[in-house]
């Protein structure tokens, strides 16, 4: 099929609390093509994970998608029934969670969990389901996959458990995977191995991958394009090299300046001043203006979407593009 695998248009996800409405996702738009990796980055509370949960229909009350469209293979999946979403979730759209124990049941063997995952969506024999499970473990680099099928989650290290979670996500060769910071708790060596495998698998299987992370270093080495989120909105989006080498939005610049590798040895980190606004007290206009060194009175109004080439941003005072 021509066109992007996933296209999100003006997505709004709100939580209706006793104290007011929390606009966790506030007009987010992006798309991901077959074989492409999109990095979704930002501080905690920026709306990254809720965007992923919204795509999969996993937002629980009092939250709900209140507007916009989520087009998967050209079909709008917003408003599908629970039964209809179950036919997509796990088979055609999969998710990898930050904590693999959210995916794995500690009292069931790996074989039981993987085989049941296959049988839940496809009418195949248990033998075929087991063979597919074994092959998926081998695909993510788990040695002796036949033997490890009989193991339980507690018999794996954290990195190996995450590989099992990735293998489960790959069982049905989904067209789209949402990965919610799946390598955050892993050491650097294991993290780099898993990132290399995900790059190879995305290309080999032709999947679209949305990689949610707060780590710009991970996104720089993995994603083809990056979308920077702040206060429920995408403030800058474009090819990874363009966005990270020539950041336009002051928030993107602040994130990059906060990375230790970008600061001379012994020099203090240039942290972004202040804190992200509380969800119920977000200012009008640009939500970043209270922390921005370039803010003026015009920032009290909503900044329009501007673009130069393949990069787009929401800011009245774009930095790198203006200088260029």
TrEMBL record:
Family, per entry: Belongs to the ABC transporter superfamily.
GO molecular function list: ATP binding; ATP hydrolysis activity
PROSITE patterns listed in its UniProt record: ABC_TRANSPORTER_1, ABC_TRANSPORTER_2
Coiled coil location: none
InterPro entries the record matches: AAA+_ATPase (IPR003593), ABC_Ni/Peptide_Import (IPR050388), ABC_transporter-like_ATP-bd (IPR003439), ABC_transporter-like_CS (IPR017871), Oligopep_ABC_C (IPR013563), P-loop_NTPase (IPR027417)
Entry's localization field: Cell inner membrane
Major localization listed first in the record, in broad terms: membrane
One Pfam family recorded for the sequence: oligo_HPY
Membrane topology: Peripheral membrane protein
Protein name per the record: ABC transporter ATP-binding protein
Swiss-Prot/TrEMBL keywords: ATP-binding, Cell membrane, Membrane, Nucleotide-binding, Transport
UniProt source species: Microvirga brassicacearum
SMART domains reported for this sequence: AAA
GO biological process, one term: peptide transport
GO terms for cellular component: plasma membrane
Every ABC transporter domain range: 6-256
Keyword match Plastid: no
Claim: Oxidoreductase is one of the keywords in the record: no
